[in-house]
Design brief:
single chain, 420 residues, alpha/beta, Lyase, Ornithine Decarboxylase, Chain A, domain 1, TIM Barrel, 2 domains, nine-stranded mixed beta sheet, eight-stranded parallel barrel, 12 helices, binds pyridoxal-5'-phosphate
Length: 420
């Protein structure tokens, strides 16, 4: 899949069969709008790529987008879940996932959280020796897998590479075999092995390198007398955020990675944990132009979404393609920075973009906003969390109301003496 291409009708962008101006009018802005069918297609693309070669479980990494409606779509598709906190576990149970479909992978997990996770009955993927020892005390006999540090990293930026040597995640490579033996000793039952190299990689190679490390470890663990049922290669499959960017070769990845395990190990079941790939391009962020400013050295399109709404550009320097949905397909004649309403110079959505002559009231469309968009939104500047809308079959439905001011104060308490 390349970056998505949308239809223009009477100069307006059509998203999932609907005019983006109509959606903005009905639900207000800023608003995240998701195309249900695209979520389903993306899930099926990953599942069919891997299941062609090996028994496969696709665990959707829900930190990318935890809206209950979107989780429910994936439950209907038969997905499993990769959850990284007790909050995510509870959210996915609420969305109707069976505990056996959910795998919890934490890092620096507190004893309190681990106890709560155990109570829910979900599968547990351990990140450290200390977490393992805690689990053996809390719940002897539990089936476990371990996240290992493969020494291979990949991702769209420094901050999202997780598999490199020295990373805070996983069991260091040279301690893996002894850790599996230790787990047996203290009464746990190791059944799998896991790694996650990072987020947003666009090439197959790092995944093959990762698979080779995992295969070698599987064999060492095997020689030590422990047979594993599954290998979990984590997530991190990238998506093209730019028009001319190549798509990930999903089939190539699936065939090469499964081949490593088939040729070299006895393990015949693979788990994949895509987050971004499943939801990123299913969703656009609609944000209204509130102001146009000519600032001598550049021109600004001021919009009502800032890094409180979508933090990826400000936090990672990420690129999101932005179009004027109200003048869609019209010749691009002007150059702008697109910036939000927060009182921070770093509050921007895009630098140096060519667009048609934008006018106040135009609906700007930020592409590929479905992953790490809403889930990283905040209340900074006391701005409400945005609304979320789901489109299916030409019908748009609200799946999350815009937050109210009262909801932002709800948990605050003012001591009596300050109320005078
Ligand atoms: C974040 C994460 C993923 C998913 O990453 P994507 O880049 O969204 O595919 C998978 N597994 C684990 C353990 C993660 O922390």
């Amino acid at each position: 899949m390349a970056m998505r291409d949308f239809e223009s009708r009477d100069g307006k962008m059509i998203f999932a069969g609907m005019n983006v101006e109509d959606i903005a009018k009905e639900f207000g802005t800023p608003v995240y709008v998701t195309d249900e069918q695209r979520v389903r297609e993306n899930y099926r693309a990953v599942y069919s790529a891997f299941s062609k070669y090996m028994e496969t479980e696709v665990h959707y990494a829900c930190k990318a987008n935890t809206n209950l409606a979107i989780l429910s779509i994936l439950r209907q598709e038969g997905a499993g879940i990769d959850a990284v906190s007790i909050g995510e576990v509870e959210t996915c149970l609420k969305a109707g996932f069976d505990p056996s479909k959910i795998m919890y992978t934490g890092v620096f997990v507190s004893e309190e959280e681990l106890k709560q996770v155990v109570e829910t009955g979900v599968r547990i993927n351990l990140d450290s020796v200390s977490e393992m020892e805690k689990l053996a005390r809390i719940a002897p006999g539990t089936k476990v897998s371990f996240r290992i540090t493969p020494g291979v990293g990949s991702g769209h930026g420094e901050k999202v590479i997780t598999g490199n040597k020295g990373a805070k995640f996983g069991i260091p490579r040279d301690k893996v075999v002894e850790t599996y033996l230790h787990a047996l000793d203290i009464g746990l039952e190791p059944v799998g092995i896991h790694a996650h190299i990072g987020s947003g990689g666009q090439s197959v190679e790092p995944f093959v390198d990762e698979a080779e490390v995992l295969a070698e470890l599987i064999n060492q663990i095997d020689e030590a007398g422990i047979k594993l049922d599954f290998v979990d290669i984590g997530g991190g499959i990238g998506v093209p955020y730019k028009p001319n960017e190549d798509e990930m070769d999903l089939d190539g990845m699936a065939s090469e990675v499964t081949d490593v395990f088939e040729q070299n190990t006895d393990v015949r079941k693979i788990i994949v944990e895509p987050g971004r790939y499943i939801v990123a391009d299913s969703t656009v962020l609609l944000t209204a132009c509130t102001d146009i400013k000519d600032a001598e050295t550049k021109k600004y399109v001021g919009v009502d979404a800032g890094f409180n709404t979508l933090i990826r550009p400000a936090m990672y320097g990420s690129f999101h393609y932005i179009a004027d949905g109200s003048k869609f397909g019209r010749a691009c004649t002007s150059r702008y920075d697109i910036a939000g309403p927060l009182c921070e110079s770093g509050d921007y959505l895009g630098h140096d973009r060519v667009l048609p002559e934008v006018e106040e009231g135009d609906i700007m469309v930020v592409y590929d906003a479905g992953a790490y968009g809403f889930t990283m939104a905040s209340n900074y500047n006391s701005r409400p969390l945005p609304a979320e809308v789901l489109i299916n079959d030409g019908k748009a439905e609200l799946i999350r109301e815009r937050e109210t001011p009262e909801e932002q104060w709800r948990h605050q308490k003012v001591p009596e003496r300050l109320q005078r």
